Amino acid sequence: MKKTCILALMLLWSVAGFAQGEGPRSINQNHNIFSRSPNSGIGIKGGVNFASVHGSDKDKFGDVNSHTSFHAGIFAQFGFGEFFSLQPEVLYSRKGFERQDSVYRFDYLEVPVLAVFNITDNFSVHLGPQVGVMVSAKVEDEEIEMEPYNTFDYGAAAGLEGSVDRFRVGARYVHSFGDLRKEDSMGNNINEDIKNGVIQVYLGVSF
Q1: CATH number, domain with residue 56
Q2: What secondary structure does DSSP assign to 26-78, as a single string?
């Protein structure tokens, strides 16, 4: 799994570097799909997760509360003119929830691909799908088996971002469509409506 994470990061970084390197030469030709836009670039980002679970069956976990954690990763944003950009990311994100007796933590490697609408040179709206793979599950600080959980997740993200020079600050909500669990504590297959949800607040730096 560590090799997969490293390869994904290297691939995104390589594609971003290639597109950035091709930009100035192609702009002069007036037909470059990776033309410069107000928020184009590559960079790193990280911030706070306010994670929770939602769905009609979430009460099966008892009285649950949100869990505060983190996310971090890299992004590459490619401009298609002045208004629209496409932004793929590779993020390591911790989700989960808290109960009165314990804290559940689920770590994911996630890849959002977001449409970015540049409202002004310093403000944009982000919207798009994302997929993720669970790489770790813990109760308190002890590793637990991931077999009862759906390790593949998918969903949608939407948010707002402001930028000043090379710095970016934003907020995003990520709503999972995939069920968190596929088996109960006895190993029986189940079909329950419990999904991840997370509010992300982040700071980014582009290069």
Answers
A1: 2.40.160.20
A2: HHTTT--TT---TT-EEEEEEEEEEEEEESTTGGGG-S-B-EEEEEEEEEEEE
